[in-house]
Design the sequence.
């Protein structure tokens, strides 16, 4: 069965610092991978997605992620974090079928 | 263009009761999926409806059932509620064959079972 692991439950960074959120997936083939963000009272918003091709994908709000097959990873990065980026971030995969498999999430806190 | 609309936004139920949650998909979408998000957890897939039939189901008991109407809106029903059903229930809509990338999520219904 496919699974997604986000090893960091909480991360705190200073505004303007760089950010990397870790994600590892488990799936026999190459899954479709996504990063979603969830702010309090808001629905889940798609930041970026990877299906195939270029392993470095660009998303909204200045986020990017790199797919590394050898490490089964899909880490999310941002060069300079803004206070408004404070939220919960989910790494998500889907393989065969239509269901999305979510990681447990990483709560990002931004210190001013 | 309206996104996914869920109602109600919050509700409180007593153990043993039944609850119905509603979802209107984004315009142009024909597929509705439901997810349960317990506190501190990622959303868990409950089931997906397409053409008024359950197309795929996650590891949830039969107490969880659903329905999709001809206008593509959907209901999630939970019978015999227990405390562990307290969670945020999210609805996601998509176009058939989108394979995940076209999902639009609603803001959810916060269910509290007391």
Sequence:
């Amino acid at each position: 069965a496919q699974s997604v692991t986000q090893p960091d439950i909480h991360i705190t960074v200073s505004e303007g610092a760089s950010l990397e959120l870790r994600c590892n997936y488990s799936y026999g083939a190459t899954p479709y991978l996504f990063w979603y963000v969830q702010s309090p009272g808001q629905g889940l918003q798609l930041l970026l997605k990877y299906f195939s091709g270029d392993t470095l994908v660009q998303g909204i709000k200045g986020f990017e992620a790199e797919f590394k097959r050898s490490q089964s990873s899909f880490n999310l990065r941002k060069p300079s974090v803004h206070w408004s980026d404070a939220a919960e971030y989910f790494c998500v995969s889907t393989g065969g079928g239509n269901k999305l498999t979510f990681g447990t999430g990483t709560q990002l806190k931004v210190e001013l | 263009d309206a996104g996914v609309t869920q109602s109600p936004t919050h509700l409180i139920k007593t153990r043993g009761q039944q609850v119905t949650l509603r979802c209107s998909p984004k315009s142009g979408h024909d597929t509705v999926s439901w997810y349960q998000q317990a506190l501190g957890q990622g959303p868990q897939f409950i089931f997906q409806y397409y053409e008024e039939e359950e197309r795929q189901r996650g590891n949830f008991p039969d107490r969880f059932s659903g329905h999709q109407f001809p206008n593509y809106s959907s209901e999630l029903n939970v019978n015999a509620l227990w405390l562990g059903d307290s969670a945020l229930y999210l609805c996601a809509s998509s176009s058939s064959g989108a394979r995940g990338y076209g999902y639009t999520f609603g803001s959810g219904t916060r269910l509290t079972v007391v």
